[in-house]
Amino acid sequence: MPVDTSAAVAALTQLAVLIDAATKDGVADGADLVQGLGRTYAPHLSGELASSITITGPAATGPAEYTAKVGPTMVYGRIREIGGAIPGRKGMTHPFLRWSYGGHWVFKHKVHQHGAKYMLHAVEDVRPQFRSIVARRWANAIDSV
């Protein structure tokens, strides 16, 4: 006796589409959290660095596989994250970094800035939650079939 499996195949096909969309939405949710925490943890002098933290994606990397990039667009975002030497500009009339500190002007050929690791801390804080964020999206997708 033949068994009609077309309804089951249609439901599974629909579920695959919904799981793909749920995965994309879960990655977007995680990226939103990383962006929010990154903006909170970023060093705040003017707020420009924090407000420059943007999200690119989510972009598909395979079936139900997505990636998103979250980070600052300001030129100095990387040096504030990981730290390093900041040189004065060569070829200028005054190849110095200069700033006012304690009412006095300070001139240096280069300075070393410690990394704030603001984006790393944001990712580390979201990582333990990420599985449950995606699982919640998947559960909603499964319940809708």
Mean pLDDT across all amino acids: 91
Number of strands: 6
The parts where pLDDT drops under 50 for at least 5 residues are: none
Radius of gyration: 24 Å
Number of structurally distinct domains: 1
* Major sheet: 2 strands, antiparallel
The rough form would be described as: rod-shaped
Given helix and strand content, the structural type is alpha+beta
Tell me what portion of residues adopts beta-strand conformation: 15-25%
Tally the helices: what do you get? 4
Tell me the series of helices and strands, N- to C-terminal. Answer: HHEEHEEEEH
Termini gap: 28 Å
Q: What percent of residues adopt helix (DSSP H or I)? A: 40-55%
Which strand order does the major sheet show? 1-2
Q: Concise description?
A:
The protein has 145 residues and is of the alpha+beta class. 50% of the residues lie in helices and 25% in strands. The chain has four helices and six strands.
Task: Please write out the topology.
Blueprint: H1 6-41, H2 48-51, E1 54-62, E2 65-71, H3 77-82, E3 83-87, E4 97-101, E5 104-108, E6 110-114, H4 118-143
Antiparallel strand pairs: 1-2, 3-6, 4-5
Helix pairs in contact: 1-4
